[in-house]
């Protein structure tokens, strides 16, 4: 990454420098990773995630960063150099952190305005349990293709689908897995997606060649995902019609439910389709929700606080709940506002500290080069790329670095073996983009779990498309299926 913090805003991530440190051995580069993984495993499996309190994972990431810092000092890297890289990493997540804060406010205002209850209400009427999970995949995929953003998809229809599914008695992990699977399929296949543009830029091919070639592995992955979710839906143990009728009656009695409330999410989706910045689109959704809350939900605002201004303040900034006579809905109709995102934001910031120090001491480049040296065959090259992307999602905690570093490191190796650049760009997306959401401390994993309200460990197994994609790309490589040669791409 670029060492001059004053220039970070002017330099696209794909043009930033990757730091190498010849003083650092591969074993030394792996020490912080091994310690981090060991401490995280101890916290999760032995201490039930509460070893050091509610912010255990955050403290562990900082410990790993401390180990990396000591290694850096022993290998002639100055505190100043490491500080610069950490600062650049923190600056790189400034916008995602703002988005998280706005998503917290969005969830609160959409609850107070009746938007989320309306989505749940009409969704329960339309989506039967037998088709709910595959329908969630398809709906999320459509929205993500249209917007080019898995984050926006989760923050809009994703929240609603989790609410509907939970009301039906379906596991939150299953629903989140279906939403994430569809959202990341759409994100990969949309020409509006930043990662879909970044991967071909790294590999040296064009956008639409990349999308067309990526469909070869992506379509089978999403088809298998839909089949699995269809089977899960048909066999899911869900609530009966009587329970759904009771839930509908409770929602109708608590909120003023009407189709006009769908105007709020349409504002957000419309602004994104018009290429408004995510911050602008989410802000528009918040302001629209405030107006609709004042018009349609005065009784709800009165239950939240003793004045409309205070109720709206609570919806935006702090946690609140709309009490009903149904205990299941009480959990659903609760929001944390911006404050509810503090754990997720702290996790992202600590992950950026760890990743920044690892980058500064040259550990990321050293690990990737070691993997590249093991690629003694075409399949080995693909496998090394996949492992590198997966590893960087874990270590660097950022999906963009999981595309940029392997993209730069492996580009020449693919050319030397006569492989077209779209092989590399497809592999980067199949293993870098989609697996980021499977790592709890990665920016994507932290975001999705925070927004959907489902821990990564709960949805991991059900994010079928995401963990299946790297296996699919390796299967195609192993059997030489659609492995395009360089001459054939000209």
Task: Explain the layout of strands and helices.
Elements (H helix, E strand, L loop, with lengths): L25 H21 L9 H19 L4 H14 L1 H19 L2 H12 L5 H16 L2 H19 L3 H18 L4 H10 L3 H29 L5 H14 L8 H11 L4 H19 L1 H7 L3 H10 L2 E2 L5 H6 L1 E2 L6 H19 L2 H11 L4 H18 L3 H18 L4 H13 L9 H10 L3 H4 L4 H15 L12
Antiparallel strand pairs: 1-2
Helix pairs in contact: 1-2, 1-18, 2-17, 3-17, 4-13, 4-15, 5-7, 5-11, 6-7, 6-8, 6-10, 7-8, 7-22, 8-10, 9-20, 9-21, 10-21, 10-24, 12-13, 14-15, 17-22, 18-19, 18-20, 19-20, 19-21, 19-24, 20-21, 21-24
User: Number of DSSP helices?
Assistant: 24
What's the overall geometry?
A: globular
Oligomeric assembly: single chain
Strand order of the largest sheet: 1-2
Mean pLDDT level: 85
Q: Mind telling me the C-alpha Rg?
A: 23 Å
Distance between the terminal alpha carbons, to the nearest Å?
Answer: 32 Å
β-strand number = 2
Strand content: under 5%
Instruction: Give the SSE string.
Output: HHHHHHHHHHHHHHHEHEHHHHHHHH
Largest pleated sheet: 2 strands, antiparallel
Helix residue percentage = over 70%
Low-confidence stretches: 1-11
| Class from helix and strand fractions | mainly alpha
